[in-house]
Amino acid sequence: MQDKLDFLIERVKKQNPQANIKKIRAAYECAAHAHEGQKRKNGEPYIIHPVSVAEIIVEMGLDTDSICAGLLHDCIEDTAFGYKEIENKFGTAVAELVDGVTRLGMLRYSKEQEQFEDLRKMFLAMAKDIRVILIKLADRLHNARTFQYLPERKQRDKALETMEIYAPIAHRLGMSRIKWELEDLSLKCLDPIGYNEIVEGLKAQSEQHEEFLKGITERISGKLAEAHIENHISARVKHIYSIYRKMYAQHKTINEIYDICAVRVIVDTVADCYNVLGYVHDLYKPIPGRFKDYISTPKPNGYQSLHTTVIGRAGIPFEIQIRTAEMHKMAEYGVAAHWKYKQGLDRKGNEQAFAWIRQMLEAQQDTEAEDFIKNIKVDLFADEVFVFTPKGDVVNMPAGATPIDLAYAIHSAVGNRMTGCKINGRIAPIDSQLKNGDIVEILTSKEARGPSRDWVKIVKTTEARNKIKQWFKKECREENITNGREDLDRELRANLLYNGFYENGEVFKNTLDKFSFNTVDELYAAIGYGGITLTKVINKVKDDVNRIRRANEQVERQNQPQPERRTSKSTTGVVVEGIDNCLVKFARCCTPIPGDEIVGFVTRGYGVSIHRRDCSNVHIDEDPDRWLSAWWDEDMAMDDRTARFSTGLQISTRSRIGVLSDVTVTLAACKINVHEISARDLNDGFGVINAMVDVAGVHQLDNLISRLRQIKGVLDVTRTVDTN
Ligand code: MN
After folding, report:
1. Among 120, 207, 363, 413, which is least packed by CB within 10 angstroms?
2. Distance between Cα 59 and ligand 1 center (Å)
3. Is 77 one of the annotated active-site residues of the chain?
4. φ, ψ dihedrals at 141, nearest 5°
5. Is 443 helix (H, G, I), strand (E, B) or coil?
6. Is the pTM of this model over 0.70?
7. Taking a C-beta distance cutoff of 8 angstroms, is the pair 160, 190 a contact?
8. Which of these is catalytic: 29, 77, 200, 478?
9. Which residue in 10, 29, 78, 230 is the catalytic one?
10. How far is CA 664 from CA 431, 470, 659, 683, in A?
11. Which residues lie across from 398 on neighbouring strands?
């Protein structure tokens, strides 16, 4: 183990002379202690893994904190050495890095295709610090190197995840070296036969390739030496996955693929790049259309180089890449190379580095990446947020979404049982705004308690809102019916439609039909949960009742001898003992109105005549059989707005000019309908005004009387009794 540490330290010293070796050693000690006794799947001590990850991180050229985080990266998850301990010993920065890597580690491969896109996006969106992504890539790279020790199924899952998420991210970040290795290692698991076919094929041709590349290298370097251009040439066979893709795309076997070899020339200056290109084209015949100038037009991920494909001896084509040393570093390490040039970045520096990545991602405009980039942009800048379930599933929510939205996004049953939530392990308010990378656990109860009505206002997504409404519609049926019924009845009474609705079968049926309800309970329930507004229902009932009333009145007028003016509506206003729906009229002598105590007198031929109990014409003892008890119909709403009962008023006044007009103005102001009004002078400085007015009942009449009494010149106001 000591060897491995020493080797790491050597690499660090070489790569980064300013690195804090003491801190790195301390991190190693902690990790070794924390993982003591743990073994990897291949039987090695666990500590080998973090040290190997740290080595990759050193290769990338990252700073001391990243190296320490690499060594400690599996501590939070797997050991008792947690965030607090790391923070105390190595500072917040290292603890944050390790925490970030742990969270990214929760990304889980899922079989649903769309999930990949979300995962890639999330990966970038949730890492506040680019180093977290780089450390995670290093972690995955080392794991990929040891895929073979995993059970077969897990191998394939991990390999697919690596191919679909980690390699594309490495590509976007311009880290081609890591990308290639990830791709080849994954391919080996995903298609071992195809992979081996290529490996074997390459092996069979390796002498040929070697010789071929050697010839080319010598020829080019000779030419460049003549021209005094400092250079470094590397010749290689392309990586396996790129050959594999070519074979599939072109339906060819390995023996039919020719441009398997590639040569790279690295020089000092951009001018030399173009010079070398000239010499190469001198030596070999270029294939038309295959020259690409990525120096003047860099690839979206920042890659710069000249590419050309030429025909070698024996007519075999090969590709030559020409670039400067700096471009080469960028090509191999991408974002990490950028990091490397800005050693020891403070927080602000990190933000700048991240801003740079954003720019780079924004600049990526090739069609392949277009969607990806469009989406990333959205993420990095605003309206989406990615959170984890405790199982590690990623859920993509709109920004501003709450745990309630998440619960309903998972399943409506989860939402309906939700009692609370934990965010990152702590109990949190259910209306908290979710942030990228939050691990959100929805707490539920066994029985569906159901959502709270306020939730409709809290949630951000229409999906959640609809599901909550749906619940109230379904689950609270009884309550909705009760509430709906109360609301409807109150409103019907207020509009004097109660009887009209409940007693007239036609109105009732029309109303239900109009809104497609089968039963009145359905109507109540809909009102209860807000599926239909009361106004709509009332308007419908009002229309129907009025229409039917008009029709009935017409029929009545035709069939009956013309009744007294004020009796037309009496059938719905008064209940008479022992007689259902009898024809009722109001006695003119005392003009009873709702609220008065009343009795009925059976007339000959005109139904029952209703008198006030205290009318001077009431003589029950004289003819007890014809006097009947009578009551105002309780269900008849006595509403101030709708006057329906005529009654007489007598107003005593001083003779004063304008008193009559004051009285009529007051009546109008009280919205009282006046049938008759007459004024008489009594010749002794006094006068009297008689009026027949329509009121709903005694309450309204009392109000009216007290208003009239306030008029200057009015002495008294009384109800008319026995004018005849
Ligand atoms: Mn690990």
Report:
1. 207
2. 17
3. yes
4. -60, -45
5. strand
6. no
7. yes
8. 77
9. 78
10. 59, 55, 9, 22
11. 384
